[in-house]
Predict the structure.
Amino acid sequence: MLAGAVAVLVATGLLSWAVGTGWSRLATVVHGVAGLSLLVLAPLKIRGSVQHGFRRRRQGRWLSALLGVMIVTTIVLGVLHASGLWYGVGEWSALWTHVLVAVLSLPLVLWHVTSRPARPRRTDLDRRTLLGGAAVVGAAGVAYATMEAVLRVASLPGADRRFTGSHEVGSFDPARMPTVQWFDDSVPETPADEWELVVAGEPISLDRLRSLARPVEADLDCTGGWWSRQAWDGVALAELLPDLDARSIDVRSATGYSRLLPAGDAPHLYLAVGYGGEPLRRGHGAPVRLVAAGRRGPWWVKWVTAVEPSDRPWWLQFPFPLT
Ligand SMILES: Nc1nc2c(c(=O)[nH]1)N[C@H]1C(S)=C(S)[C@@H](COP(=O)(O)O)O[C@H]1N2
Ligand SMILES: [Mo]
């Protein structure tokens, strides 16, 4: 049961984290219900473990206890994030910490499932067990629905989170929009008047970009758990690369950060120089950043210095950018 639930949680968690299109809502809901199922199971599990492991002083019982604490911490952080009751402290957002503790607990889960003598018995698949499983998932579903209802009735911030599970921050108010760097990336210092941008091998001036830019509304949805809608002043890549005949588009930052996007995305990709009629702030990618409408935050490359057609397929890259 634990192994199955964890597999579902990892898969749906990754999906809702990485995908920015509508159907990931389903993954987010399944993720919530599966997480709450573990919580419903916890009291039973703890009783059983205490009777067997602790009374008999079985080896590794402290590791099991640590795993239990990590699982409960992960679920509590997930609920805090989803409800919007607590966002975390600074860089340590509730969601990010949730992901971190979950990933750290995976080796322990693996150890727990492989080292327990709980061999699958024939009875594991009988009707009673199936009904028991259905009851647990049902209870978790009811808990999930109740939580959603409470969020709405009490108008808690979690009530209007996006289908990805992210909370709205500073829409149409760029000054309030957070700035996020991935791991070790830092804000480059090159002044805007010395900025060099190359599109398909040709240098293009920022003035030219500014003259072509049109407002386009798009949601920046960070995997840290927040989203923000802005009216970006951007130029469609489809306009800058009219005869694009490549598999992908490589968008590179002055910092070494880069993303390879499928060429078919070109109509939804923009080079943005401003938002809400004002120039971008440095932290938000000034003088020029990518707006990847419909995609999650990590694709929105900041401080762009090059946009190059490429014949490497977009999936031939590390799933998370390294700089
Ligand atoms: N060069 C560069 N671009 C980047 C990042 C980065 O670390 N370096 N972080 C990405 C991530 S994860 C997000 S969510 C958005 C955040 O944009 P913001 O700082 O304007 O809110 O930028 C993306 N673009
Ligand atoms: Mo992000």
Summary: The mean pLDDT is 87. The pocket of MTE (ligand 1) is lined by residues 177-182, 185, 220, 222, 253, 255, 257, 283-285, 297-298, 300-303 (CB under 6 Å). The helical segments are 2-18, 24-54, 61-83, 94-115, 127-153, 206-212, 237-240. Residues 2-167 form one domain.
